[in-house]
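quick one, 464 residues, struct below
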Amino acid sequence: MASDRILFVTGRLAEQALTKMLAGLSDELNFSYEIKVLGISVAALMHADWVSQRLEVKDKFDRIVLPGWCGGDTEQLSVQYGTGVERGPKDLRNLPEFLCGRSDPSPDLSSYDVEILAEINHAPLLTDSEIVSAAEKYRDAGADIIDLGCVPGESWDRVGDVTRILCECGFRVSIDSFDRREVESAVAHGAELVLSCNGSNIEWLKPLGAEVVVIPDQVRDMSSLRESVRELEDAGVPFRIDPVLEPIGFGFAESLSRYFEVRRHWPAAQLMMGIGNLTELTEVDTAGINVLLAGICQELQINSVLTTEVINWAGSAVHEFDLARRLVKHSVSKGVLPKHVDSQLVMLRDPKLLEMGEDALDDLARRLKDPNFRIFVERGEIHVMNRDGYWRGSDAYDLFAKIIADSPIDDQSHAFYLGYEFAKAVTALTLGKQYMQDEALSWGFLTVPEKSIRDRRQKDPDVS
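---
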């Protein structure tokens, strides 16, 4: 089968590294190529309009690959050259993955089996607008049902009105209360699910016509749970069983075993798990907890979870579980590990680290002819270079002092830029993250894109 013929467009500084990389990749991935070096040192400063005026393509190519930072409209270039023109990766070290990825589409993570109930805690203490705003935030994060958490020992007179408002806004609503007036009013105004049902309230819940979450009378009293389930089945009341997840140090492992027991005893029943008892009550970042619990839910067919975002470290727990339930659904249904599928939940560190290596950095430093600083982070150090020198170290203050001694910085904005990039570089060095100059550090789905210095340049770059 004929291989692709690809034209790679680059600048003078990247030519050597690109040539070296393509020499090995072309045989491995079965493509032929040519490299066109345009009259610019820094390939990242190219713009599509500028390329259009300077790139001549006389031969036929299946694809033209521009530097990843190249701005402008590549569609116009595709029309001009009569073939597909695309941006490559922003970091040349990602070129192998980029070329391999064309025939390896991202997995479909649109499916999930586990429903999310997101609780608005102490809802009676909030205004109507605050409750609607919280519900919208949860829905945007992936919640399927908004749970109104009431205040134990108090009775909320407006629960019916608030339930109606949420339902009119298109929300599905559950009510979390043992107070009869609160529950009856919420159900009358559209709440579809009641948390929770046990021997203390089962008699007045049965005629309401709402689905209930059934729990033991006492957390470890499985006999009471079986009795309540029997009564609900006899009365024809829809229910979900929650044997109650307990916090670490208070019976966590044993409570997990009860979910296995419940699933064996009721193989077709709807189950629910209140995962907030772990995410809210364990002082640790919650993404890993959510993936682990989502995996348990997927394998045990626990059909819904109750979670919330009260404490600060659990401030994105709903979105985390939404991503986690999709990841584990893919893993279990496809029989694959939940690895190298989606990295949005890798936040503290990064999935991989790329390095230029000692020789490549030395070579680049020797060939630089302009005053602009290039910054790299690898092998435990920050590496900075321009035409005046090559500096390296792990202490940003010491490094900056050495740099300004050899390459004075008179421009305040340039000094600010260097300090800003150093702050990101030190963070990457500390956490073992991938640093890429002018790019935001990756924090998974929490990443906030930055407008880089390249975005601020004019279309016509300096080609000196």
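Residues 412-431 form the longest helix (20 residues).
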